[in-house]
Amino acid sequence: KLGVRIKTISLFGFGPLLFSWRSSFFNGARIGFGPLPYGAYVLFNDSDLKTLKTEELDDISFAGPHMNFVMGTLIGCLFMISYGVTKPALIATILGAILTLRPIKLFALYAILPFVAVYLLGDMFRFESMSKSVNEGFLFAIGSRKFFDFKDFVKNFLLIATLMNISLGTLNMLPIYPLDGGHVAKRLADRTLNKEKLPYKLLFIYLPSAFVILMLLPIIGDIRKILSFLF
């Protein structure tokens, strides 16, 4: 919509694509899978990005979380229409609907999520938390007996999909670089903070590095858990 060309789309995983193919729909962009099993990403043509306004760049950064909130809202409504109103579904659906609004996203990013980010980083630094990972929820879902209870499979699937979309969107909006919320926060910091000073380096170099390392530490344990589910 904004005329930015796409170079690469990772459907799952960070880092260089392990294998990929060219997409005529995205004008020859490479689509594939990355080696590090966390999330996904899109790489754009840098020269196209330089022509955009800050608000347009923010809209691009918000696009991923925004779709999580839209999907969480729609699936939550479908769940409640089909199976009645429950407290978890109602709260998640209302939260998702509110967060689709751009002013609310900006307010959450700058006024609320910094405290969530500090709590999350502090919790991850605790020794017992280092044995867990961001995709623990996914592992719980596929290992849950309720999830594979085919009698209520659709009901459980809709509820889990609602909660996971809202959770993923919120996590991705945390003001921690290189998450999407971190990109928005970094653009503000680039205009207001001295890049050579400690506060800037702390926010966008040291803390993000610690966050990424803590996320990567449990990969071996996760692979073992995934294999235990499959075999």
Note the main attributes of this structure.
231 residues, 4 strands
Strand content: 5-15%
Helix content: 55-70%
Q: Give the helices and strands as they follow along the chain.
A: EEEEHHHHHHHHH
Strands in their spatial order, largest beta sheet: 2-3-1-4
Computed Rg: 19 Å
**Residue windows where pLDDT falls under 50 for at least 5 positions:** 133-139
Q: Look at the structure and give the mean pLDDT.
A: 81
Structural class of the helix and strand makeup?
alpha+beta
Largest sheet: 4 strands, mixed
* Tally of contiguous helical segments: 9
Question: What's the shape?
Answer: globular
Termini separation: 45 Å
Can you count the beta strands?
4
Structural notes for this entry:
This protein is of the alpha+beta class and 231 residues long. Helices cover 62% and strands 9% of the residues. The chain has nine helices and four strands; from the N terminus they run E-E-E-E-H-H-H-H-H-H-H-H-H. The protein has a four-stranded mixed sheet. Strand 2 and strand 3 form a beta hairpin. The longest helix has 30 residues. The radius of gyration is 19 Å and the shape is globular. The chain starts with 5 loop residues before the first strand and ends with a helix.
